[in-house]
From TrEMBL:
The protein's name in its UniProt record: Glycosyltransferase 2-like domain-containing protein
Span of domain Glycosyltransferase 2-like: 293-394
Pfam families for the chain: Glyco_trans_2_3
Gene3D superfamilies linked to this entry: Spore Coat Polysaccharide Biosynthesis Protein SpsA, Chain A
Superkingdom classification of source: Bacteria
Organism: Longispora fulva
Length: 499
Protein backbone atom coordinates (compact mmCIF):
# COMPACT_ATOMS: atom_id res chain seq x y z
CA UNK A 1 0.00 0.00 0.00
CA UNK A 2 1.42 3.38 -1.01
CA UNK A 3 2.00 6.22 1.44
CA UNK A 4 -0.64 8.36 -0.27
CA UNK A 5 -3.22 5.57 0.01
CA UNK A 6 -2.50 5.13 3.72
CA UNK A 7 -2.73 8.88 4.21
CA UNK A 8 -6.10 9.00 2.44
CA UNK A 9 -7.48 6.20 4.56
CA UNK A 10 -6.23 7.84 7.74
CA UNK A 11 -7.84 11.12 6.71
CA UNK A 12 -11.12 9.36 5.94
CA UNK A 13 -11.05 7.55 9.28
CA UNK A 14 -10.44 10.84 11.08
CA UNK A 15 -13.30 12.50 9.23
CA UNK A 16 -15.71 9.66 9.99
CA UNK A 17 -14.67 9.67 13.65
CA UNK A 18 -15.17 13.42 13.94
CA UNK A 19 -18.52 13.16 12.15
CA UNK A 20 -19.73 10.40 14.46
CA UNK A 21 -18.83 12.26 17.65
CA UNK A 22 -20.20 15.52 16.28
CA UNK A 23 -23.42 13.80 15.28
CA UNK A 24 -23.91 12.48 18.81
CA UNK A 25 -23.33 15.96 20.20
CA UNK A 26 -25.79 17.41 17.68
CA UNK A 27 -28.49 14.99 18.78
CA UNK A 28 -27.76 15.93 22.37
CA UNK A 29 -28.12 19.62 21.53
CA UNK A 30 -31.51 19.01 19.91
CA UNK A 31 -32.66 17.10 22.99
CA UNK A 32 -31.37 19.92 25.19
CA UNK A 33 -33.55 22.41 23.32
CA UNK A 34 -36.56 20.11 23.58
CA UNK A 35 -36.02 19.77 27.30
CA UNK A 36 -35.80 23.54 27.72
CA UNK A 37 -39.05 24.03 25.80
CA UNK A 38 -40.80 21.36 27.89
CA UNK A 39 -39.67 23.01 31.11
CA UNK A 40 -40.63 26.49 29.98
CA UNK A 41 -44.12 25.40 28.92
CA UNK A 42 -46.69 26.05 31.71
CA UNK A 43 -47.88 22.93 33.49
CA UNK A 44 -51.50 22.21 34.48
CA UNK A 45 -53.04 25.48 33.23
CA UNK A 46 -56.61 24.32 33.84
CA UNK A 47 -58.34 24.35 37.24
CA UNK A 48 -57.95 21.09 39.16
CA UNK A 49 -61.00 19.69 40.94
CA UNK A 50 -59.29 16.54 42.24
CA UNK A 51 -57.83 16.63 45.77
CA UNK A 52 -54.09 16.10 46.03
CA UNK A 53 -52.95 12.52 46.69
CA UNK A 54 -51.18 11.46 49.85
CA UNK A 55 -47.42 11.51 49.26
CA UNK A 56 -45.12 9.86 51.79
CA UNK A 57 -41.66 11.39 51.56
CA UNK A 58 -39.11 8.70 52.44
CA UNK A 59 -35.53 9.68 53.25
CA UNK A 60 -33.06 6.87 54.07
CA UNK A 61 -30.05 8.03 56.09
CA UNK A 62 -26.72 6.43 56.96
CA UNK A 63 -24.02 8.28 58.94
CA UNK A 64 -25.78 11.60 58.37
CA UNK A 65 -25.68 13.01 61.90
CA UNK A 66 -24.74 16.47 60.66
CA UNK A 67 -27.33 16.61 57.87
CA UNK A 68 -30.61 15.45 59.41
CA UNK A 69 -31.31 18.66 61.35
CA UNK A 70 -31.21 20.71 58.16
CA UNK A 71 -33.36 18.11 56.40
CA UNK A 72 -36.04 18.18 59.11
CA UNK A 73 -36.12 21.98 59.20
CA UNK A 74 -36.57 22.10 55.44
CA UNK A 75 -39.25 19.42 55.34
CA UNK A 76 -41.14 21.05 58.22
CA UNK A 77 -41.87 23.96 55.89
CA UNK A 78 -43.14 21.54 53.24
CA UNK A 79 -45.40 19.67 55.65
CA UNK A 80 -46.89 22.86 57.08
CA UNK A 81 -47.67 24.20 53.60
CA UNK A 82 -48.88 20.93 52.02
CA UNK A 83 -51.07 18.81 54.33
CA UNK A 84 -51.15 15.84 51.93
CA UNK A 85 -47.44 15.18 52.57
CA UNK A 86 -45.86 13.07 55.30
CA UNK A 87 -42.18 12.43 56.02
CA UNK A 88 -40.50 9.22 57.15
CA UNK A 89 -36.81 9.17 58.04
CA UNK A 90 -35.31 5.67 57.88
CA UNK A 91 -32.14 4.92 59.83
CA UNK A 92 -30.38 1.56 59.73
CA UNK A 93 -28.64 -0.89 62.03
CA UNK A 94 -25.94 -1.10 59.40
CA UNK A 95 -24.49 2.13 60.76
CA UNK A 96 -23.74 0.53 64.13
CA UNK A 97 -22.48 -2.68 62.54
CA UNK A 98 -20.08 -0.80 60.30
CA UNK A 99 -18.52 1.18 63.13
CA UNK A 100 -16.47 -1.89 64.00
CA UNK A 101 -15.37 -2.33 60.38
CA UNK A 102 -14.58 1.37 60.14
CA UNK A 103 -12.53 1.17 63.34
CA UNK A 104 -10.54 -1.74 61.90
CA UNK A 105 -9.80 0.16 58.68
CA UNK A 106 -8.76 3.35 60.48
CA UNK A 107 -6.49 1.45 62.87
CA UNK A 108 -4.87 -0.40 59.97
CA UNK A 109 -4.27 2.84 58.06
CA UNK A 110 -2.66 4.59 61.02
CA UNK A 111 -3.21 8.04 62.56
CA UNK A 112 -1.53 9.80 59.64
CA UNK A 113 -4.29 8.69 57.26
CA UNK A 114 -7.13 10.38 59.16
CA UNK A 115 -9.09 12.64 56.88
CA UNK A 116 -12.76 12.91 55.95
CA UNK A 117 -12.07 12.27 52.28
CA UNK A 118 -10.63 8.82 52.91
CA UNK A 119 -13.13 7.54 55.46
CA UNK A 120 -16.87 8.29 55.89
CA UNK A 121 -16.23 10.49 58.93
CA UNK A 122 -17.62 13.82 60.02
CA UNK A 123 -15.27 16.72 60.71
CA UNK A 124 -15.89 16.33 64.46
CA UNK A 125 -15.03 12.64 64.33
CA UNK A 126 -11.81 13.38 62.44
CA UNK A 127 -10.81 16.02 64.98
CA UNK A 128 -11.52 13.72 67.94
CA UNK A 129 -9.51 10.88 66.41
CA UNK A 130 -6.65 13.22 65.52
CA UNK A 131 -6.52 14.49 69.10
CA UNK A 132 -6.34 10.99 70.60
CA UNK A 133 -4.26 9.41 67.77
CA UNK A 134 -5.50 5.87 68.51
CA UNK A 135 -3.46 2.96 67.21
CA UNK A 136 -5.68 -0.06 67.93
CA UNK A 137 -9.14 -1.03 66.77
CA UNK A 138 -10.47 -0.83 70.31
CA UNK A 139 -9.14 2.69 70.80
CA UNK A 140 -10.67 3.88 67.53
CA UNK A 141 -14.01 2.22 68.37
CA UNK A 142 -14.03 3.90 71.78
CA UNK A 143 -13.68 7.33 70.17
CA UNK A 144 -16.37 6.64 67.57
CA UNK A 145 -18.75 5.31 70.22
CA UNK A 146 -18.56 8.69 71.91
CA UNK A 147 -20.54 10.21 69.06
CA UNK A 148 -24.29 9.86 68.60
CA UNK A 149 -25.50 7.65 65.79
CA UNK A 150 -27.85 9.04 63.16
CA UNK A 151 -30.66 7.15 64.87
CA UNK A 152 -29.94 8.90 68.18
CA UNK A 153 -29.84 12.30 66.50
CA UNK A 154 -33.16 11.72 64.70
CA UNK A 155 -34.89 10.56 67.89
CA UNK A 156 -33.67 13.63 69.74
CA UNK A 157 -34.73 16.06 67.04
CA UNK A 158 -38.20 14.56 66.62
CA UNK A 159 -38.83 15.01 70.34
CA UNK A 160 -38.72 18.78 69.90
CA UNK A 161 -42.24 20.31 70.13
CA UNK A 162 -42.04 22.09 66.78
CA UNK A 163 -41.43 18.81 64.95
CA UNK A 164 -43.46 16.50 67.19
CA UNK A 165 -46.72 18.05 65.97
CA UNK A 166 -45.94 17.38 62.30
CA UNK A 167 -46.60 14.11 60.38
CA UNK A 168 -42.98 12.98 60.64
CA UNK A 169 -42.16 9.36 61.39
CA UNK A 170 -38.94 7.53 62.16
CA UNK A 171 -38.25 3.92 61.24
CA UNK A 172 -35.14 1.90 62.00
CA UNK A 173 -34.22 -0.83 59.53
CA UNK A 174 -32.86 -3.83 61.47
CA UNK A 175 -30.73 -5.20 58.62
CA UNK A 176 -26.96 -4.79 58.77
CA UNK A 177 -26.14 -5.47 55.11
CA UNK A 178 -28.77 -3.60 53.11
CA UNK A 179 -28.22 -0.21 51.57
CA UNK A 180 -30.63 2.55 50.65
CA UNK A 181 -33.02 0.23 48.81
CA UNK A 182 -33.53 -1.99 51.85
CA UNK A 183 -34.35 1.05 53.98
CA UNK A 184 -36.91 2.35 51.48
CA UNK A 185 -38.49 -1.09 51.13
CA UNK A 186 -38.72 -1.31 54.92
CA UNK A 187 -40.57 2.00 54.96
CA UNK A 188 -42.94 0.77 52.24
CA UNK A 189 -43.82 -2.20 54.43
CA UNK A 190 -44.27 -0.19 57.64
CA UNK A 191 -46.08 2.97 56.52
CA UNK A 192 -49.87 2.43 56.86
CA UNK A 193 -51.19 1.45 53.47
CA UNK A 194 -54.64 3.00 53.01
CA UNK A 195 -55.68 2.94 49.34
CA UNK A 196 -52.42 2.08 47.60
CA UNK A 197 -53.77 3.22 44.22
CA UNK A 198 -54.16 6.78 45.54
CA UNK A 199 -50.97 7.34 47.52
CA UNK A 200 -47.28 7.59 46.68
CA UNK A 201 -43.87 6.87 48.07
CA UNK A 202 -41.50 9.72 47.20
CA UNK A 203 -37.84 8.79 47.60
CA UNK A 204 -35.45 11.65 48.36
CA UNK A 205 -31.89 11.89 49.64
CA UNK A 206 -30.85 13.61 52.85
CA UNK A 207 -29.43 16.50 50.82
CA UNK A 208 -32.52 16.86 48.59
CA UNK A 209 -34.31 20.17 48.98
CA UNK A 210 -37.66 20.11 47.13
CA UNK A 211 -39.36 23.48 47.48
CA UNK A 212 -43.00 24.20 48.27
CA UNK A 213 -43.41 25.53 44.74
CA UNK A 214 -41.96 22.38 43.21
CA UNK A 215 -44.03 20.00 45.31
CA UNK A 216 -47.18 22.04 44.67
CA UNK A 217 -46.57 21.80 40.94
CA UNK A 218 -45.91 18.06 41.18
CA UNK A 219 -49.12 17.51 43.15
CA UNK A 220 -51.06 19.54 40.58
CA UNK A 221 -49.53 17.51 37.76
CA UNK A 222 -50.55 14.26 39.46
CA UNK A 223 -54.08 15.53 40.09
CA UNK A 224 -54.35 16.84 36.53
CA UNK A 225 -53.57 13.39 35.17
CA UNK A 226 -56.11 11.88 37.55
CA UNK A 227 -58.73 14.32 36.31
CA UNK A 228 -57.99 13.63 32.63
CA UNK A 229 -57.31 9.89 32.68
CA UNK A 230 -59.33 8.72 35.67
CA UNK A 231 -56.33 7.20 37.46
CA UNK A 232 -53.23 8.46 39.22
CA UNK A 233 -49.93 8.29 37.29
CA UNK A 234 -47.90 5.21 38.11
CA UNK A 235 -44.48 6.87 38.45
CA UNK A 236 -43.24 10.44 38.29
CA UNK A 237 -39.57 11.34 38.24
CA UNK A 238 -38.32 14.76 39.24
CA UNK A 239 -34.98 15.14 37.52
CA UNK A 240 -32.39 17.59 38.79
CA UNK A 241 -29.89 20.22 37.85
CA UNK A 242 -26.63 19.97 39.76
CA UNK A 243 -24.74 22.59 41.73
CA UNK A 244 -21.26 22.77 43.23
CA UNK A 245 -20.78 23.86 46.84
CA UNK A 246 -20.09 27.56 47.31
CA UNK A 247 -16.42 28.39 46.99
CA UNK A 248 -15.66 25.38 44.78
CA UNK A 249 -13.13 25.56 41.98
CA UNK A 250 -13.64 25.54 38.24
CA UNK A 251 -13.51 21.74 38.00
CA UNK A 252 -16.38 21.27 40.46
CA UNK A 253 -18.52 23.84 38.66
CA UNK A 254 -17.67 22.23 35.32
CA UNK A 255 -18.66 18.81 36.68
CA UNK A 256 -21.96 20.17 37.99
CA UNK A 257 -22.76 21.73 34.61
CA UNK A 258 -21.79 18.55 32.81
CA UNK A 259 -24.16 16.53 35.01
CA UNK A 260 -26.93 19.10 34.51
CA UNK A 261 -26.47 18.81 30.76
CA UNK A 262 -26.67 15.03 31.07
CA UNK A 263 -30.06 15.51 32.72
CA UNK A 264 -31.25 17.77 29.92
CA UNK A 265 -29.69 15.96 26.96
CA UNK A 266 -29.95 12.32 28.01
CA UNK A 267 -32.14 11.67 31.05
CA UNK A 268 -35.18 13.72 30.05
CA UNK A 269 -34.79 12.56 26.45
CA UNK A 270 -34.85 8.92 27.57
CA UNK A 271 -38.13 9.52 29.41
CA UNK A 272 -39.64 11.16 26.32
CA UNK A 273 -38.67 8.17 24.17
CA UNK A 274 -39.89 5.71 26.77
CA UNK A 275 -43.26 7.40 27.06
CA UNK A 276 -43.59 7.75 23.27
CA UNK A 277 -42.95 4.05 22.81
CA UNK A 278 -45.66 3.10 25.30
CA UNK A 279 -48.19 5.65 24.03
CA UNK A 280 -47.81 5.24 20.27
CA UNK A 281 -47.29 1.55 19.67
CA UNK A 282 -49.08 -1.62 20.72
CA UNK A 283 -47.18 -4.35 22.50
CA UNK A 284 -44.56 -5.81 20.20
CA UNK A 285 -41.04 -5.44 18.89
CA UNK A 286 -41.47 -1.89 17.61
CA UNK A 287 -42.65 -0.64 20.99
CA UNK A 288 -39.78 -2.50 22.68
CA UNK A 289 -37.19 -0.80 20.48
CA UNK A 290 -38.69 2.70 20.58
CA UNK A 291 -39.23 2.84 24.34
CA UNK A 292 -35.67 1.73 25.08
CA UNK A 293 -35.02 1.70 28.80
CA UNK A 294 -36.43 3.84 31.61
CA UNK A 295 -33.49 5.36 33.49
CA UNK A 296 -34.95 6.37 36.84
CA UNK A 297 -32.77 8.01 39.49
CA UNK A 298 -32.86 7.56 43.25
CA UNK A 299 -33.95 11.04 44.32
CA UNK A 300 -37.16 12.79 43.37
CA UNK A 301 -38.75 9.42 42.54
CA UNK A 302 -42.51 9.22 43.17
CA UNK A 303 -44.02 5.75 42.84
CA UNK A 304 -47.66 4.84 43.37
CA UNK A 305 -47.73 2.36 46.20
CA UNK A 306 -49.45 -0.46 44.34
CA UNK A 307 -46.93 -0.09 41.50
CA UNK A 308 -44.06 -0.14 44.00
CA UNK A 309 -45.33 -3.50 45.23
CA UNK A 310 -45.96 -4.72 41.67
CA UNK A 311 -42.32 -4.29 40.63
CA UNK A 312 -40.98 -5.71 43.89
CA UNK A 313 -39.80 -2.46 45.48
CA UNK A 314 -36.32 -1.09 44.97
CA UNK A 315 -33.78 -3.75 43.92
CA UNK A 316 -31.49 -4.90 46.73
CA UNK A 317 -29.27 -7.28 44.75
CA UNK A 318 -27.36 -4.52 42.94
CA UNK A 319 -24.80 -1.95 44.07
CA UNK A 320 -27.25 0.92 43.61
CA UNK A 321 -30.99 0.91 43.13
CA UNK A 322 -31.98 3.71 40.75
CA UNK A 323 -31.15 2.40 37.25
CA UNK A 324 -31.92 -1.20 38.31
CA UNK A 325 -35.38 -0.02 39.40
CA UNK A 326 -35.85 1.54 35.97
CA UNK A 327 -34.94 -1.79 34.38
CA UNK A 328 -37.67 -3.61 36.33
CA UNK A 329 -40.14 -0.83 35.53
CA UNK A 330 -39.35 -1.22 31.83
CA UNK A 331 -39.81 -4.98 31.95
CA UNK A 332 -43.18 -4.47 33.66
CA UNK A 333 -44.21 -1.92 31.02
CA UNK A 334 -45.03 0.72 33.65
CA UNK A 335 -45.27 4.32 32.35
CA UNK A 336 -42.96 6.99 33.79
CA UNK A 337 -43.80 10.69 33.65
CA UNK A 338 -41.31 13.52 34.10
CA UNK A 339 -42.09 16.16 36.70
CA UNK A 340 -42.68 19.60 35.18
CA UNK A 341 -39.98 21.28 37.28
CA UNK A 342 -36.38 20.31 37.92
CA UNK A 343 -34.96 19.96 41.41
CA UNK A 344 -31.45 20.69 42.62
CA UNK A 345 -28.80 18.21 43.69
CA UNK A 346 -25.27 18.78 45.03
CA UNK A 347 -22.04 17.64 43.41
CA UNK A 348 -18.72 16.93 45.14
CA UNK A 349 -16.14 19.70 45.18
CA UNK A 350 -12.85 17.81 44.86
CA UNK A 351 -11.28 15.73 42.11
CA UNK A 352 -11.00 12.65 44.33
CA UNK A 353 -14.66 12.77 45.31
CA UNK A 354 -15.78 13.36 41.72
CA UNK A 355 -13.87 10.29 40.57
CA UNK A 356 -15.28 8.19 43.42
CA UNK A 357 -18.78 9.33 42.59
CA UNK A 358 -18.27 8.39 38.94
CA UNK A 359 -17.01 4.98 39.97
CA UNK A 360 -20.03 4.42 42.21
CA UNK A 361 -22.59 5.63 39.67
CA UNK A 362 -21.12 3.55 36.84
CA UNK A 363 -21.92 0.39 38.78
CA UNK A 364 -25.49 0.98 37.59
CA UNK A 365 -24.41 0.01 34.07
CA UNK A 366 -22.25 -2.89 35.22
CA UNK A 367 -25.21 -4.29 37.16
CA UNK A 368 -27.60 -4.40 34.19
CA UNK A 369 -26.90 -8.12 33.52
CA UNK A 370 -27.89 -8.83 37.13
CA UNK A 371 -31.05 -6.78 36.55
CA UNK A 372 -31.90 -8.98 33.57
CA UNK A 373 -31.42 -12.12 35.66
CA UNK A 374 -33.64 -10.69 38.40
CA UNK A 375 -36.32 -9.81 35.84
CA UNK A 376 -36.16 -13.33 34.41
CA UNK A 377 -36.53 -14.84 37.87
CA UNK A 378 -39.53 -12.61 38.58
CA UNK A 379 -41.15 -13.37 35.21
CA UNK A 380 -40.95 -9.76 33.99
CA UNK A 381 -40.51 -9.08 30.31
CA UNK A 382 -39.91 -11.28 27.31
CA UNK A 383 -36.38 -12.36 26.28
CA UNK A 384 -36.35 -9.86 23.42
CA UNK A 385 -37.35 -7.06 25.79
CA UNK A 386 -34.53 -7.91 28.17
CA UNK A 387 -32.07 -8.13 25.27
CA UNK A 388 -33.08 -4.71 23.91
CA UNK A 389 -32.89 -3.16 27.38
CA UNK A 390 -29.41 -4.63 27.89
CA UNK A 391 -28.32 -3.28 24.51
CA UNK A 392 -29.60 0.21 25.35
CA UNK A 393 -27.95 0.12 28.76
CA UNK A 394 -24.70 -1.08 27.21
CA UNK A 395 -24.78 1.72 24.64
CA UNK A 396 -25.35 4.35 27.33
CA UNK A 397 -22.61 2.95 29.53
CA UNK A 398 -20.16 2.85 26.62
CA UNK A 399 -21.04 6.45 25.81
CA UNK A 400 -20.09 7.49 29.33
CA UNK A 401 -16.92 5.39 29.40
CA UNK A 402 -15.74 6.99 26.14
CA UNK A 403 -16.93 10.53 26.95
CA UNK A 404 -13.49 11.78 27.94
CA UNK A 405 -11.57 10.13 25.08
CA UNK A 406 -14.17 11.43 22.61
CA UNK A 407 -13.68 15.00 23.83
CA UNK A 408 -9.91 14.72 23.51
CA UNK A 409 -10.30 13.19 20.05
CA UNK A 410 -12.34 16.16 18.84
CA UNK A 411 -9.80 18.61 20.18
CA UNK A 412 -6.93 16.68 18.65
CA UNK A 413 -8.59 16.49 15.24
CA UNK A 414 -9.53 20.18 15.33
CA UNK A 415 -5.89 21.25 15.74
CA UNK A 416 -4.31 18.48 13.68
CA UNK A 417 -2.78 18.76 10.22
CA UNK A 418 -5.47 16.64 8.61
CA UNK A 419 -7.62 18.01 5.83
CA UNK A 420 -9.92 20.96 6.37
CA UNK A 421 -13.13 18.85 6.30
CA UNK A 422 -11.92 16.89 9.33
CA UNK A 423 -10.75 20.00 11.20
CA UNK A 424 -13.99 21.82 10.43
CA UNK A 425 -16.14 18.86 11.50
CA UNK A 426 -14.20 18.46 14.75
CA UNK A 427 -14.45 22.19 15.47
CA UNK A 428 -18.19 22.01 14.88
CA UNK A 429 -18.33 19.11 17.33
CA UNK A 430 -16.63 21.21 20.01
CA UNK A 431 -19.16 24.00 19.43
CA UNK A 432 -22.29 21.81 19.54
CA UNK A 433 -20.88 19.62 22.31
CA UNK A 434 -19.53 22.25 24.68
CA UNK A 435 -19.94 25.90 23.66
CA UNK A 436 -23.62 26.00 22.71
CA UNK A 437 -24.73 23.68 25.57
CA UNK A 438 -22.84 25.90 28.03
CA UNK A 439 -24.63 28.95 26.64
CA UNK A 440 -28.07 27.35 26.81
CA UNK A 441 -27.50 26.05 30.33
CA UNK A 442 -26.40 29.51 31.47
CA UNK A 443 -29.63 30.98 30.11
CA UNK A 444 -31.71 28.27 31.79
CA UNK A 445 -29.99 28.91 35.13
CA UNK A 446 -30.16 32.72 34.75
CA UNK A 447 -26.39 33.07 34.71
CA UNK A 448 -24.38 35.43 32.45
CA UNK A 449 -24.38 34.17 28.86
CA UNK A 450 -22.06 36.74 27.29
CA UNK A 451 -19.24 35.39 25.06
CA UNK A 452 -16.54 35.63 27.75
CA UNK A 453 -18.65 33.83 30.37
CA UNK A 454 -19.69 31.14 27.89
CA UNK A 455 -16.06 30.62 26.86
CA UNK A 456 -15.08 30.18 30.51
CA UNK A 457 -17.96 27.76 31.15
CA UNK A 458 -17.09 25.80 28.00
CA UNK A 459 -13.49 25.27 29.09
CA UNK A 460 -14.64 24.12 32.55
CA UNK A 461 -17.17 21.81 30.93
CA UNK A 462 -14.57 20.35 28.57
CA UNK A 463 -12.08 19.67 31.38
CA UNK A 464 -14.76 18.03 33.54
CA UNK A 465 -15.82 15.87 30.59
CA UNK A 466 -12.27 14.67 29.97
CA UNK A 467 -11.93 13.60 33.61
CA UNK A 468 -15.42 12.11 33.70
CA UNK A 469 -14.30 8.79 32.23
CA UNK A 470 -11.80 8.07 35.03
CA UNK A 471 -14.43 6.91 37.52
CA UNK A 472 -16.12 4.51 35.07
CA UNK A 473 -12.75 3.06 34.05
CA UNK A 474 -11.96 2.49 37.73
CA UNK A 475 -15.34 0.80 38.20
CA UNK A 476 -14.70 -1.55 35.28
CA UNK A 477 -11.23 -2.42 36.56
CA UNK A 478 -12.55 -3.03 40.08
CA UNK A 479 -15.36 -5.23 38.77
CA UNK A 480 -12.93 -7.29 36.70
CA UNK A 481 -10.73 -7.69 39.78
CA UNK A 482 -13.71 -8.76 41.87
CA UNK A 483 -13.37 -5.83 44.27
CA UNK A 484 -16.28 -4.95 46.55
CA UNK A 485 -16.74 -2.33 49.24
CA UNK A 486 -18.38 -3.19 52.55
CA UNK A 487 -18.87 0.41 53.59
CA UNK A 488 -21.52 2.77 52.28
CA UNK A 489 -20.87 3.62 48.63
CA UNK A 490 -21.55 7.31 49.22
CA UNK A 491 -18.35 9.12 48.31
CA UNK A 492 -18.89 12.68 49.45
CA UNK A 493 -20.44 14.50 52.34
CA UNK A 494 -22.02 17.88 51.67
CA UNK A 495 -21.24 20.29 54.48
CA UNK A 496 -21.95 23.62 52.81
CA UNK A 497 -24.68 25.23 50.77
CA UNK A 498 -24.73 24.85 47.01
CA UNK A 499 -23.91 27.88 44.94
Amino acid sequence: MSASSRSSRTALAGLLLAAGITGRHAVGLLELRRSRRALIRPACPDPIDVPAPTVHLVVPVLREQQAVASLLDWCATLLEALPSLTLTVVTTAREDAERQLLAEQIAAAGPGALRAGRFPLTADECQALAAVRPTTTGEVAAVLDGFLSTRDVVVGLLAEPALAKLPIGHLHHPGVEGRKAAQVNHAAEQIPAGDETESYLAVFDVDSRPTVEQMTLILRELASHRQRAGSWPEIMQQSALFTAPAGSGALAHGAARMQSLWTLRRELASFRRYRAGLDRYPAGFRRTVVRGLAQTVGHGLLVRRDVFAQVGGLPTSTTLDDFPFGFQVTMAGVPVRSAPMLGRAPMPDTLTELVRQGRRWFNNYLDYPRCARDATAAGRGRPVERAVALAVGGYRGTGWLLRGPAALTLLGLAVSRTGWPTRLTAAAGLVVGFVEPARQLARLEDRPADPLSVAHDSVDLFCATVLNSVGPAWAVAARLAGARTALSPKAHRITGEAS
